[in-house]
Here is the input.
Amino acid sequence: MYMACIRDKRYQHHQQTMSGAREQQYWLPGYGLSRHIVLGHIQYFLGPSASARPFTYQGREGYLINGMPLTREQINDLAVMSREYERQEAARMTTHAGLDTSYSGQASEPYINEPIPVHQRPQARRRPHRIDNRRAR
Here is the structure.
């Protein structure tokens, strides 16, 4: 319940601050982010026109996002929700398998889920530099 309240406030704040921003297409690294959470909650964070799909960029797994840029707070919320989801799924699986193990995740992991723009328009087209291969006489 508390997390829902935090997410509601962050979503409203994001909508107010990003009203001047335009939608983008960018890659979000998937480290520590559950596919179930990202795909199921992206519209909650970015609005109904946002979309996400699994995507590999430079050999790394992640998500291709179409929508407003996620804030660090929102990415952190997705990571917290993902850890909780994975913890619940692990507990559910061990209960069904008849095992009794506890999950312990590390909270002090480095922040590596910085969004990376994928399709940007070039600012100004530069002329190719021509090299004169003739000898000076």
